[in-house]
Design brief:
InterPro entries: DUF6807. This is Methane oxygenase PmoA. It is built from one helix and 23 strands. The chain is mainly beta. The chain has one helix spanning 3-14, and strands at 28-32, 36-41, 44-50, 65-69, 91-94, 97-100, 103-106, 114-125, 131-141, 148-159, 167-177, 181-185, 195-198, 206-210, 213-215, 222-223, 227-232, 241-249, 252-253, 256-258, 266-268, 276-279, 283-294.
């Protein structure tokens, strides 16, 4: 996959929301179930948000994430619970260090000591044909003798209408501390990974580019531009699509990335190894824009 194709995906990431193509005549809608919400367009699944764990007895923290994401032609782009890293959840936002008053009380990355209770799920369409799923979530630490309510989260997932064969998905998450000092931090090493992550399919076949330049993953976090392009090298078993991702934290672009050409996730690293501390009622806002576009215009559905 050429850098030019990746750059085109990145330009779509950085651009504003596009208007719907009037020739398409399709609308984004939502199908609600007790444990999940499926967002569709013209009856085709776009993504599936998991509101409750499939097995609450063994994995009570496996909720509040996107477990399935599809390209416009139905190609699956992410994996949920792969055998090599069963804790990875498709598209999710979590940190290894969840602290209260400077003491580690839970690990959201490996789903230890933290559960998510989705209090409300609602969907609203927009005049352009897109729609937004909004979820209100309570973070409950269960590592001690009593449940402790540590944070309130509101996440909005907006799916824009399919335009010129490309799809845009936007995530907007606000986490509000409900304790005197809530700390969120990444892995306790020089990688410091944590925050918004994706487990893309066939990671061994991925190529990476940022700012029009190829990026080589090397087992450590890399500093690059405010957006990253992902593309598969090609072949009968790899998606004929590119994925562009841009991340912000409290309005500032995240430019540090954890990238893998082995079976693992891709992550825009925030805040890093040292925890970000939120005082009571203080908020952290995470914003991500994801653009899925054909690797070649000839393959536009």
């Amino acid at each position: 996959m050429s850098v030019r194709a990746l750059l085109a995906a990145l330009l779509l990431v950085m651009a504003g929301p596009a208007l719907a193509d009037p020739a398409i005549g399709k609308r984004v809608d939502a199908v609600f179930a007790d444990d999940a919400v499926t967002l569709t367009e013209a009856g085709k699944t776009v993504l599936v948000y998991r509101a409750k764990p499939l097995d609450p007895a063994t994995q009570p923290g496996r909720a509040n994430y996107v477990g399935a994401l599809y390209a416009p032609d139905g190609t699956a782009l992410i994996e949920d619970g792969p055998g090599d890293h069963p804790h990875q959840r498709g598209i999710w936002w979590a940190w290894m260090k969840v602290q209260t008053d400077g003491k580690s009380v839970a690990d959201g990355w490996y789903m230890k000591g933290l559960s998510y209770f989705v209090r409300e799920k609602r969907f609203l369409g927009d005049p352009q044909g897109g729609g937004t799923l909004t979820v209100d979530v309570d973070w409950m630490v269960n590592s001690g003798p009593e449940l402790v309510y540590v944070a309130r989260e509101t996440t909005r997932i907006t799916v824009r209408p399919l335009t010129a064969g490309s799809r845009r998905v936007e995530f907007d998450t606000i986490i509000t501390s409900r304790v005197d000092a809530l700390g969120l931090g990444g892995s306790d090493d020089d990688r410091g990974f944590g925050g918004f992550s994706m487990r893309l399919v066939e990671p061994e076949q991925l190529t990476f580019a940022s700012g029009g330049k190829p990026i080589a993953p090397g087992g450590a976090a890399v500093d690059a531009g405010p957006s990253m392009g992902f593309a598969w090298r090609g072949g009968s078993n790899t998606p004929a699509w590119t994925v562009g991702l841009a991340c912000k934290a409290n309005g500032q672009a995240v430019t540090r990335w954890m990238l893998y050409n082995e079976r693992s996730m891709q992550n825009c690293v925030f805040p890093g190894r040292a925890p970000l501390v939120l005082r009571k009622d203080q908020t952290l806002r995470l914003q991500e824009t994801l653009v899925i576009r054909p690797a070649s215009r000839k393959k536009t559905p």
